[in-house]
Design a protein that fits this description.
By secondary structure, this protein is mainly alpha-helical. The chain has one domain. It is built from two helices and no strands.
Length: 41
């Protein structure tokens, strides 16, 4: 499988974005969501 330069750039950008998401931020979001769920009937 051969990737074009554009495809390689896109994959690198996606990987960089994923690396930029910190685990702590995900944990905080999950805590906020679980609290919101408990409040609603």
């Amino acid at each position: 499988m051969v990737l074009s330069d554009d495809e390689v750039a896109l994959i690198k950008a996606i990987l960089a974005a994923l690396r930029g998401i910190k685990i702590r931020d995900i944990d905080k979001a999950l805590v906020i969501l679980s609290k919101a769920e408990r409040r609603s009937p």
